[in-house]
Amino acid sequence: MTQQLIHADVSSRVIGAAIEVHRELGPGLLESAYEECLCYELSQAGLVFERQLTLPVQYKRIRLDCGYRADLVVAKAVLVELKAVSAITEVHEAQLMTYLRISGVRVGLLINFNSATLKEGIVRRVI
Fold first, then answer.
1. How far apart are CA 53 and CA 68, in angstroms?
2. What domains are defined for the chain?
3. pLDDT by residue, tens only, the chain of 127 residues
């Protein structure tokens, strides 16, 4: 299985749910509104997810809660970081990669709802 195909089924279902939210709401709302609506869509689709999952940092064999939280982890397979910003930047992508690394989840989606079309606002990464 190639790196890009890992958990493609879950990723596709999450993206489909996000597209539905974006079609209904459009850009311009707060991230929290998109998160709430996406959680509703994921529930309707029968997907199991964890919301605002605490991501502790391992430092010298000690687990420290440093305040990092993943917006969603779907099916224990895909970490989803939501944004409502003018553009995805390198900092946002670095955040996603850091969350993947410290969570142990291999597939991440960065979804920016403040895009004209949601397709332009989605980044998928695999570690």
1. 8
2. 3-126 (3.40.1350)
3. 455 588 999 999 999 999 999 999 999 999 999 999 999 999 999 999 999 999 999 999 999 998 999 999 999 999 999 999 999 999 999 999 999 999 999 999 999 999 999 999 999 999 9
